[in-house]
Structure formats: C-alpha cells, structure tokens
Amino acid sequence: MSIKGPAGGLFRDLEASSTDGNVFYAAYGRSFYRSTDGGATWIEHPFTGFVNDIAVDPADGNRVLVAAQLDGLFRSLDGGRTFTERDCAMGQWCCRSPGCSAPGCRPCDRR
C-alpha cells in the first residue's frame, strides 16, 4: 500500500540507499517503510515487533538488513520489497514475504 508517509513522531532509523538518491528506508513503530520517489510516498512492510535498526550495504543500496524486536533479523536483496529471516538455529535465511523465491531460502515455520 502506498501512503503519503508515516504519521510522524519518533523514527527509530532513517537510511538512504547507497546507490539511488531517490530511495529511502525508515523504521517507524512496528513497520519498515520504503520510498522510491525521494520521500513523496512510502510503502509499508509491517512487522510484529518494533523495527529498531536498518543497515544498507554501501556497495549495493538494494541490500538491506532490518532488525525487529520479537521478529529477528531480516535481509532484503530487492530494496525492501521482500524479506528473508535469519534462522539462527539453522544458520540459514528463510522466506517471510509472499512469493519470495530468493536463492537459498526456505519457507519459515513461524508466523
């Protein structure tokens, strides 16, 4: 869903893509937000817990890590469109987003 932006208030993190000046990522409440038009509109990706931190690969702005309370560590290889979850017990990434078919991913048992 595309929206004008988060409601306002405390953002836990705001990061810019390292390779595209129009792309921004925000952690607000229990959601990760992505903008591809310089912040004019945002796409929301909700999580169960608060999104605490976002890290962007300095060499590839589409590679994003997101840390969320209660949910864990997630990786996106497509600029936040889909995410895979780090399964610490198995040492693998598993798919959480509908239709995710990233190499090496397996379906998650949680959620």
Structure description:
The protein has 111 residues and is mostly beta strands. The protein has a single domain, classed as N-terminal domain of TfIIb, CATH 2.20.25. The chain is 0% helix and 42% strand. The strands form two sheets. It has a six-stranded mixed sheet, with no helix packed on it.
Structural features:
N-terminal domain of TfIIb; 111 residues; 5-stranded antiparallel sheet; 6-stranded mixed sheet; mainly beta
Secondary-structure topology with pairs:
Blueprint: E1 2-3, E2 13-16, E3 24-28, E4 31-35, E5 42-46, E6 51-56, E7 64-68, E8 72-76, E9 84-87, E10 92-95, E11 106-107
Parallel strand pairs: 10-11
Antiparallel strand pairs: 1-5, 2-3, 3-4, 4-5, 6-7, 7-8, 8-9, 9-10
How many domains make up the coordinates?
1
Order of helices and strands: EEEEEEEEEEE
Radius of gyration from CA coordinates = 13 Å
Assigned CATH architecture: Single Sheet
Quick overview of this protein structure:
The chain is mostly beta strands.
